Amino acid sequence: MFSAPGHPETIWSDVSGTVKQSRQIKWAGGTAAAHKIGSVAGAAKIITRSVALQFSWNGGFVEADAESGKHVFSYRNRPRYGLVLPPGSEVEFRIKEKSNYRFLSIELEPEYILRNCELQHLSAMDIIETWGYNHPLSWQLAHLLYEECEREGRQGLLYLETAVMFLSLHLVRHLSTYTGTSNLSRRGGLPPNVCKRACDYMIARLQDDLSLTDVASLCGFSAGHFSFAFRQSMGMSPHAWLRCQRIERAKALLRDHTFSFSTIALAVGFANQSSFGVAFKKETGLSPSTWRRSLR
């Protein structure tokens, strides 16, 4: 947990409390960790090594403040609170009392953000320290990422990295010193041979937890460019397209009644039978068991 004892960015901490649940997902360039907190109190000082984002949904009592530089930021009983810290930020958190809240911590390497947004050529770009961060799109993405962590990556890395890619673009556009414009969303689709290469690569690895960064790199694009171009070519996001292919493969396997649902789930790249069932029903309107019975 960010600012807790043992975290690599914690200088010192006497924070203590009850943590009901913690889940973390890592990928090349970042981490996201979701926590359910019963209660917590204490103080801690941290220095960030990467771009750090924190989102807190509060369902209980909150009385806390944080000191960054010469500024003190207080938050008391707000239903939610967000902040963005650039690398090298020194912050002291002082928590008198916090109870019954959910907390998402995202840490992104600056180079990862630049690659996502095709800004590797920049010699410098700073993320702006922001407290009381309340942009609706970012909170929507934070909610999706919290659920993915909580469910231990139910929808896979391709889904998670797509959400992080949009979050990276938002940071660059609205909370950075970059003054240029991004034309990723206005570019055309993928060349047919490149699109086929990406599709063939994903179909050959339906059972794997595919990374958006890896598929994009195969095609010679950034994750951001690839995502927008793929949608232009195929009419849907890479994640949605991959889910369709997995469900089509699952339908073929469901015709063989010797395969259990859990076996089929793993064979087509879902973490477990539950995540497979949710995705199958989203695509077909039926559960796998109902669909199988309809074949009789």
Describe this structure in words.
The structure is a single chain. The termini are far apart. The protein has 3 domains: 10-174, Jelly Rolls (Sandwich), CATH 2.60.120; 184-235, no CATH class; 245-293, Homeodomain-like (Arc Repressor Mutant, subunit A), CATH 1.10.10.60. The longest helix is centred in the middle third of the chain and has 18 residues, at 157-174. The protein is built from 10 helices and 9 strands. A hairpin with a 2-residue loop joins β2 and β3. The protein is globular. It is of the alpha+beta class. It has helices spanning 110-116, 136-150, 157-174, 192-203, 212-218, 223-234, 238-254, 261-267, 273-284, 288-293; strands at 10-13, 16-27, 30-47, 51-58, 62-68, 71-76, 80-85, 90-108, 130-131. α2 (136-150) runs antiparallel to α3, α5 packs across α6 and α8 (261-267) crosses α9.
Compact overview of the structure:
With 296 residues, the chain is an alpha+beta fold. The chain is built from ten helices and nine strands.
Keywords summarizing the entry:
about 300 residues; alpha+beta; Jelly Rolls; Arc Repressor Mutant, subunit A; 9-stranded antiparallel β-sheet; 10 helices; globular
